[in-house]
Amino acid sequence: MSQKIKAPNDKNRSFLWGIVALVVICVVFIGFMVFNGRKSSDIELSAADVSFSVAVEDGVIQLRSTDGGGGDVPTADVYEDYSCTHCADLSEVDGDSIQAAVEAGQLNANLHSVNFLDSNGNESSSRTGAVAMAIADTGDAGAFWAFHDKAFTDQAEVARDWRFDELADAAEQLGVESDVVESIRDESVMEKYKPSLQANGDRLRELMGDQAGTPALYIDGEYLTVQRDPEDPSKLKDWVPDVIGRDEADADAPKESGAATETESSDAE
């Protein structure tokens, strides 16, 4: 019976290839960890150049003119969820208009953050909403508005991917006070602001019942349907020009013509 005779270096070659494979795996793993670790340090944000004030009152983020306006003007109550795609669509078309109208003293804006879309253990709505409220609570309007814009413009990255370290780094980039940045990093921001997000959601359910969903818009307490842009139905219509341009006689009767857009419902919790 014949036996196959192996070359004396075969075992050494196998051992060396095993070492090479192990080194490659380690390099890939370390590279992955370094990439993830650098993700938050790559954040580059700066505060927005705005001339309105921001304050948090009973869990509501209030934007007001700093130039003496904002008295007898329409008040818009906007209910939004930082994980809601339709809210991101609305922010895309009304963000600049809200800023301009508030700065000009033509509109008061109240932003009600809710957490309807927390689901399956992923508290993306609560996490981003709590951080937004914490930044607004510092009174730094530029930092808040820049974060609000970033959160909705890059929703998939911020709401669904960023965790507290990335959010804290973003707040730090925006010049937010160090104690607030630390409260974001150690996650205590959730304990402080999540109840406000839930209360805002409960308030919207009281207003809309089973139809509660985001985005939802109220002008001087009256519901205003969010419409599609007639020139581009793939987008939502900017409602601000219609609201600030209404005749005084129509101020208490917002128009609701046109089909309502889809909303992301509280049933998704």
UniProtKB/TrEMBL annotation:
Segments of this protein annotated with the region Disordered: 225-269
All copies of domain Thioredoxin-like fold, residue ranges: 77-235
InterPro entries: Thioredoxin-like_fold, Thioredoxin-like_sf
Coiled-coil ranges from the UniProt annotation: none
Organism: Corynebacterium kalidii
Alphabetized CDD domains for the sequence: DsbA_family
Membrane keyword on record: yes
Pfam families: Thioredoxin_4
UniProt name for this protein: DsbA family protein
Assigned keywords, A-Z: Membrane, Transmembrane, Transmembrane helix
Amino acid composition bias (Basic and acidic residues), ranges on this chain: 228-255
Bilayer-crossing regions: 15-35
